[in-house]
Amino acid sequence: MNRKVAIIGMGNVGSTIAYTLLLKKSCDNLIVTCRNKKLLYAQISDLKHASVLINHNVSIEERSYSEFEDIDLIIFTAAAPLILGQNRLDMLETSKEIVKEVIPQIMASGFHGIIIVVTNPVDIVSYLIYKFSGLTNKKVIGTGTFLDTLRLKRERSEVFNVDVANISTYVVGEHGDSQVISWSNTIIEGDDIEKAAYKRGFQNVKDIERNIENKVKRAGWDIANFKGATTYGIANAVAEIVDCIFYNENKEYTLSTLDEGIYSSVPVILGRSGIQKKLMIKYSMYELEKLQKSKNIIRSVSDIE
């Protein structure tokens, strides 16, 4: 299997994803593109030098969009720089213009692979790429709340002093301020949240939930405010998605996919052909109300004109 991956955009996020794919030996051919040709030259050179000690023969090159016909996976990270004080929805107009410029060129090449969308606002950008590409929704996949779910697992592991491998949980809806944590579907070492808290002598479960929820929701912005962008977490999440697809692992993730006419994060099974199926999980009434509000926010700005 000759695994060909293209990354569109080689700024902080795209370049960290590229480096992570190299370290994890997740591809055999790495194609990178960027509007800033000087930056692109520097990134390619740096990656090539790093690859010498990885013990994996990977080619790293630039291509034009017209040469994307044989690419297996595209990782779409192209975006304008984040401005302090913005939310993810504020980035929509610039992201929309990039999609309208780039995606038709890619599809004209004969590309028929899978597109993994990282660019924010990821739910709306994924929907735009789905519409402009003509690909099935199974092949246009937003990273969505996958990283938020990983952040949630980490926060809970620290609060409850358990290994992250022993926590099952979901963040669904928008990758943004209206995201929804499903506390009713949280399992910690086999226990629901209330029983897990009781075993550890925690008195107020609601306070614990509220504190964790605020930390998870603010995590991306806190990181970006101090270092300019979130890079390591999303890069490792994308590499996990890439490996899952190439090796047909059929794993469960919370990813952004077509749901009730919009793109929104739900639990899915991911495999070689993309999203295999959506999982129908049962939410509490309170969670359902919040999830519907989250979807309505996405729906209100899912405009492709």
Automatic annotation (TrEMBL):
Entry EC no(s):
1.1.1.27
Instruction: Supply the InterPro entries for this chain.
Output: L-lactate/malate_DH, L-lactate_DH_AS, Lactate/malate_DH_C, Lactate/malate_DH_N, Lactate_DH/Glyco_Ohase_4_C, NAD(P)-bd_dom_sf
Tell me the enzyme class: oxidoreductase
Q: Does the keyword Cytoplasm apply?
A: no
A Pfam family the protein falls into: Ldh_1_N
| Molecular-function GO terms, alphabetical | L-lactate dehydrogenase (NAD+) activity
**Name of the protein in question:** L-lactate dehydrogenase
Name of the gene: ldh
